[in-house]
């Protein structure tokens, strides 16, 4: 399967200025149709805000202006790249940005978003990014500002566990990878022990990739509890990977809160493109 429809979620003007051109270049490489999408944060109503006066109209005007600026940036980037494209803008109002975004991306082969930007990302923006990964049903490519994915990667690092999420991520990555790419399959352990189900399934995955013409290797790393994200990024840097691939949110929300979510860490700290699948 190839990537022929890409949806890029643009959450702020500052993000759109670099993410829209990056997504256009990715669409050009894959000869894909690109959907630009802006979901507005819902306007919160509080009795003390005097919404019956000038506050609500002013907030609505600001939302509209932001959406128009993002659309202009996207359309300019798409015109320069020459990719087939469309832009979808949420109507200003009170229904959820999350549902609008999720509905708009489910037909895409790939969803693109940026890494977290502490200067511009409110809690609602971070929640929307999480929901794209958790509920869209599509692979999500998280791109950092300084390291967008503009080629078919020929070196990939796959974070492996014996889970549905990891298996799906590894297979989804093949739609992006260059023919004959080197694919490292990494298991992160608290301590390296005897072969278990995860190690066995990892060997099976490596063999399957070899049959498809890729060059697969298996790796192991130790990491303390809650530090798997750091271990993945360090290994990706060590192996000169162009794309990090991993399953997303494989534990309960309570586990993620207590121990720490690898997915959240990667979305906030990635220094290379990360492909996430749930």
From TrEMBL:
UspA domain segment(s): 154-278
Xref: Gene3D superfamilies: 3.40.50.12370
Pfam families found in the cross-reference section: Usp
Family membership: Belongs to the universal stress protein A family.
Protein name: Universal stress protein
């Amino acid at each position: 399967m190839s990537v022929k429809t890409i949806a890029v979620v643009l959450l702020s003007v500052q993000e759109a200025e670099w993410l829209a051109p990056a997504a256009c270049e990715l669409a050009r490489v894959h000869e894909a149709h690109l959907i630009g999408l802006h979901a507005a944060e819902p306007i919160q109503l509080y009795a003390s805000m005097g919404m019956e006066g000038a506050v609500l109209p002013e907030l609505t005007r600001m939302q509209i202006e932001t959406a128009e600026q993002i659309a202009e940036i996207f359309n300019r980037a798409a015109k320069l790249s020459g990719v087939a494209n469309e832009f979808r803008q949420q109507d200003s109002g009170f229904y959820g940005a999350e549902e609008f975004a999720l509905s708009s991306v489910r037909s895409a082969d790939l969803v693109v978003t940026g890494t977290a930007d502490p200067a511009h990302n409110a809690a609602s923006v971070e929640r929307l990014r999480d929901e794209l990964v958790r509920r869209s049903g599509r692979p999500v490519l998280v791109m950092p500002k300084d390291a967008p994915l503009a080629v078919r990667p020929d070196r990939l690092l796959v974070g492996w566990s014996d889970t549905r999420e990891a298996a799906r991520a590894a297979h989804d990555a093949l739609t992006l990878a260059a023919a004959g790419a080197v694919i490292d399959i990494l298991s992160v352990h608290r301590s390296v022990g005897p072969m278990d189900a995860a190690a066995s399934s990892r060997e099976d995955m490596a063999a399957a990739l070899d049959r498809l013409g890729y060059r697969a290797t298996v790796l192991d790393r130790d990491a303390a509890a809650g530090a798997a994200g750091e271990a993945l990024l360090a290994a990706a840097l060590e192996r000169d990977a162009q794309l990090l691939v991993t399953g997303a949110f494989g534990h309960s929300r309570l586990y993620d809160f207590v121990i720490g979510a690898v997915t959240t860490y990667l979305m906030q700290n990635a220094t290379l493109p990360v492909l996430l699948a749930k």
